[in-house]
Write a structure and sequence with these properties.
Chain B: It comes from Arenibacterium halophilum. The complex is a heterodimer of chains A (251) and B (403). In chain A, strand 7, helix 6 and strand 8 form a beta-alpha-beta unit. Chain A contains nine helices and ten strands. Chain B is built from 17 helices and six strands. In chain B, a hairpin with a 2-residue loop joins strand 2 and strand 3. Classes of the chains: A alpha/beta (251), B mainly alpha (403).
């Protein structure tokens, strides 16, 4: 039984069957990649996991509890954090403030009217956020305006923000999309390091095969809304069905 | 001090000093001089400065922090005004119950309006709040204000006021027949003559000023709190907030209600200064005015809204008083033809035309100083410090916008 169990999920947009009978099981403490050509339904599947979309049929269970019908913030509080394709951070705030917000969310829950205490007096939060910034090698950037950082740093910050919540499952949506090779390799190293240091399950949606094969322990190949195969990277590499899905029949 | 950082304490003390010495500061010109009409140190106007300051400080908690632009905050101002007058009618002229009730009622009212309006964001939110405020205005003006019906909440276009037939159950025999604080009437003033200067210290003004300071202090605390940080996060990226396990709805609603309560307090104080509440206080122009004040002063800064409120109220009251006679006195030294020409041009910008001046100023500020008057002040300060020493040049220009 995996930490994330997707069973018979269907999602239709008008006449388009975006997801058809998707079954997926992500085992705890593994890195599981979901790959597939454009339009395979990878993002739709991800959106069904985090509460942005509700599948027409089927079930999504996280740690034995259904996530269906819950809002994104509730699902996050259950222990799923999401990293977006383009880094979603609080651009108007400083790096330190960015890092403090998930710490508050972890400590105080979805809402807390803490209106008369000074942020400067929240020693536990400050300590935690600083610790996390050091882990991410960003301590020197703490007073920087988050929007003014490079894309690689924004990605690093976003991952750090997710990790500061100590999620059990980290979802990454094409974390290296649009990155230069050096930034991509940095991100791969960062994710490897994270995996080594923590008990965490990572599900990653990715286009870049270099990233997938450097990180993943299991790979699910999605094509036209349905899982084709699920296996270890070595097996996937030479799998004829995968070649077919990516390169077309004639190849 | 007061649980504030040093910078914020300084700011609070500056505002306190300005409020305390306003009767002096606003009356720089001697009585009877040609410039005396630019004096703003009379009670009626000073009260307006601080009351609208409170209104704008509260509005800024919503607009400046969360970025939600409400076009209906005058509704809460109006509700606060009516509540206070009702307390005068039912309980008596002591201002305390009136002020308390105006804050409570405006708070409840804003829970309802905020709950519905905050289901949308951006322009749809603005339109929803505008619609609610206009509904409130029309209700107050006609439906709920029919003097012949049994349910006359607002007394329609006459405005709600206190009549001798009203119960006033808590009024003691010797109590003044005007709003008062335990016997001290709001209109009572002490006048100080120094040479040809005349300074007026008014009880009502100082009550409002104390409440402004309390409001300002609370606003500082909110700005610096984790709650304030969350509100800024709402403005910055709601998507990230939702995926960080934070529910944005209660945050925005709390900000909305807090700013509604500030507006209610301002409305209650308006009635306290003059116990007559009319529906026009709820009109959309009044809602627009507080938006102008906040943007003109500097949205998202602490002191900005207070400056903006003072600025606009000053223009409204001083520029609108300049009439043709005054202009003739000013430009009398010019040859006749030229004098009339100049006056013809200038009179469009003063008197009833003061809105034109305000509009132009607003355009200039928004175009050249998007951060409002506060940004203007910072630029001047940066310029001055650059002149003082060239080596601190870099630091002055790179300094983050302070409140």
């Amino acid at each position: 039984m995996g930490i994330l169990e997707v069973k018979n999920v269907n999602k239709r947009f008008g006449g388009l069957q975006a997801l058809g009978d998707v079954n997926l099981s992500v085992a705890e403490n593994t890195v599981h990649a979901i790959i597939g050509p454009n339009g395979a339904g990878k993002s739709t599947l991800l959106n069904c996991l985090v509460g942005k979309l509700i599948p027409d049929t089927g079930s999504v269970m996280f740690d034995g509890q259904s996530v269906l019908g819950r809002s994104p913030y509730e699902i996050n509080q259950m222990g799923i954090s999401r990293v977006f394709q383009t880094p979603e951070i609080f651009g108007d705030l400083t790096v330190m403030e960015n890092m403090m917000i998930p710490c508050f969310a972890k400590r105080d829950g979805a809402f807390e009217l803490n209106a008369l205490n000074s942020v400067g007096n929240q020693k536990d939060i400050i300590e935690r956020a600083e610790h996390m910034l050091e882990d991410m090698n960003m301590a020197d950037k703490r007073h920087m305006h988050a929007a003014s950082m490079s894309r690689g740093d924004k990605r690093r910050l976003e991952i750090g923000m997710c990790l500061s919540q100590e999620p059990r499952l980290l979802l990454l949506d094409e974390p290296t999309a649009g990155m230069a090779r050096a930034d991509t390799n940095n991100t791969i190293d960062l994710l490897k390091q994270i995996k080594q240091e923590r008990d965490i399950t990572i599900a990653i949606i990715e286009h870049d095969m270099h990233v997938v094969f450097s990180l993943a322990e299991r790979i699910t190949v999605l094509a036209q809304g349905t899982p084709l195969v699920e296996d270890t990277p070595d097996k996937i590499k030479g799998h004829p069905k995968v070649r077919e899905a990516y390169l077309g029949e004639s190849a | 001090m007061f649980g504030l950082q040093k910078k914020d304490t300084t700011l609070l003390l500056v505002v306190a000093a300005l409020a305390l010495f306003a009767p002096f500061l606003l009356n720089p010109f001697p009585e009877g001089s040609a410039m005396a009409q630019f004096n703003a140190g009379y009670p009626d106007l000073m009260q307006r400065f601080v009351i609208f300051g409170i209104f704008a400080v509260g509005f800024n908690i919503l607009f400046g922090l969360t970025g939600y632009l409400s076009f209906g905050h005058a509704a809460f101002l109006g509700v606060g005004s009516y509540s206070a007058v009702w307390m005068f009618k039912l309980l008596g002229y002591n201002v305390i119950p009136g002020i308390i009730l105006s804050v409570i009622v405006a708070g409840l009212f804003s829970v309802v309006i905020g709950y519905v309006s905050l289901r949308r964001s951006g322009i749809y939110f603005s339109i929803l709040t505008l619609a609610f405020a206009q509904m409130s205005y029309n209700m107050a003006y006609s439906v709920l204000g029919n003097p012949t019906s049994n349910f006359n909440l607002t007394n329609g276009e006459t405005g709600l006021q206190v009549y001798t037939s009203d119960p006033q159950i808590l009024a003691s025999a010797g109590a003044p027949d005007l709003p008062h604080l335990f016997g001290l009437t709001m209109r009572s003033s002490y006048q100080l003559e120094l040479g040809s200067w005349l300074f007026t210290f008014n009880a009502g003004y100082y009550l409002c000023a104390v409440l402004l300071l309390v409001s300002f202090y609370v606003a500082i605390r909110i700005f610096r709190s984790p709650f304030g940080l969350m509100l800024r996060a709402v403005k910055s990226n709601q998507q990230r907030m939702n995926y960080t396990g934070l529910n944005t709805r209660p945050y925005t609603l709390a900000a909305f209600v807090i700013s509604g309560m500030y507006a209610g307090l301002a409305g209650g104080l308006l009635s306290t200064m003059d116990p007559l509440a009319g529906a026009e206080r709820m009109q959309w122009t009044a809602s627009g005015e507080v938006v102008l004040m906040t943007i003109l002063g500097g949205a998202g800064t602490l002191i900005g809204p207070v400056l903006g409120a003072g600025f606009i109220k000053y223009f409204e009251n001083i520029f609108s008083k300049i009439n043709e006679g005054v202009l003739h006195a000013w430009f009398g030294f010019l040859p006749d033809g030229l004098e009339n020409g100049v006056i013809w041009v200038v009179e469009h910008f003063v008197g009833p035309g003061w809105h034109l001046t305000l509009g132009l100023l607003f355009m200039l500020v928004v175009t050249f100083l998007p951060g409002g008057l506060v940004e203007g002040g910072q630029k001047i300060a940066a310029l001055l410090s650059r002149r003082k020493s060239k080596d601190t040049d870099n630091r002055a220009t790179q300094s983050t916008p302070a409140e």
